[in-house]
Structure to design on (279 residues):
């Protein structure tokens, strides 16, 4: 994901392709089984969210998935895991090819997750936050029987509020620590991160999930950071007040989710380590 360091503090570029795939097709891309391909990398926490949501909602037969390898160069994520290094559906070696098909002069980073329109080979969206919400709210006609309501209307305000803090202080907070450009910026980021981790820990002391009584989008978003905490963020990003395994409430919460189908079975610790320690 595109980012920069300003005055010592890591800042993430959050200007993504805002096109949406919706039931009414308002942006020119209607919900349609078999039309789109979700491009992800198991190593990436932002892409991991989309893998989980697709699995939880039972959209595997409706939206195909392509996996980039855990490492990439300065140009793009690549399909180096596929035979010949080419995605078998899109017939391209680099994700950037789908971006350039729609935007020949695309100036920003080539990021995952991204959804590609298979007939045209053009990227539709890389807005990771909106993408998973739309899978929950726009693709309901294709949800499996018994699929969880990850973004129920009655809880949306609370989910949005929790998501905002989790994103700012935890999902992005670990990067703020790891890429701090000064000691002062690092210490400020460190304090913000662990204040937020204490907050979610306190919230989860007497409830199983972050919002409501069932798994929601909020749990998906927190989980992908927690899953990478001990293997990567604790040491590599210097988020080292304590390991996840030393935070009893969050450790129990993460283990509970990890054992839930759709969560742990989407995690590849080898690829995660390769991505962070090689790239």
């Amino acid at each position: 994901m595109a980012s920069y360091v300003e005055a010592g503090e890591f800042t993430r570029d959050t200007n993504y392709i805002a096109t949406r795939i919706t039931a009414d097709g308002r942006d020119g891309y209607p919900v349609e089984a078999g039309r789109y391909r979700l491009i992800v990398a198991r190593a990436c926490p932002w892409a991991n969210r989309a893998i989980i949501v697709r699995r939880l909602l039972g959209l595997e037969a409706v939206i195909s998935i392509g996996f980039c390898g855990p490492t990439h160069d300065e140009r793009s994520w690549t399909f180096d895991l596929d035979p010949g290094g080419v995605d078998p559906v899109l017939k391209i070696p680099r994700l950037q090819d789908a971006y350039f098909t729609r935007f020949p002069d695309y100036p920003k980073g080539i990021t995952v997750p991204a959804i590609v329109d298979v007939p045209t080979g053009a990227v539709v969206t890389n807005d990771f936050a909106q993408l998973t919400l739309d899978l929950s709210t726009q693709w309901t006609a294709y949800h499996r029987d018994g699929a969880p309501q990850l973004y129920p209307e009655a809880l949306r305000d609370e989910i949005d509020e929790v998501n905002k803090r989790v994103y700012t202080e935890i999902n992005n907070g670990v990067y703020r620590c790891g890429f701090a450009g000064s000691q002062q910026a690092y210490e400020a980021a460190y304090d913000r991160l662990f204040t937020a981790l204490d907050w979610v820990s306190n919230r989860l002391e007497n409830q199983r999930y972050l919002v409501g009584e069932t798994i929601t989008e909020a749990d998906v978003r927190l989980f992908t950071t927690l899953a990478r905490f001990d293997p990567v963020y604790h040491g590599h990003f210097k988020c080292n007040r304590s390991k996840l395994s030393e935070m009893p409430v969050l450790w129990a919460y993460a283990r509970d989710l990890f054992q839930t189908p759709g969560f742990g079975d989407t995690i590849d610790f080898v690829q995660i380590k390769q991505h962070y320690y090689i790239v």
Summary: The chain has a mean pLDDT of 96. The longest helix spans residues 183-203.
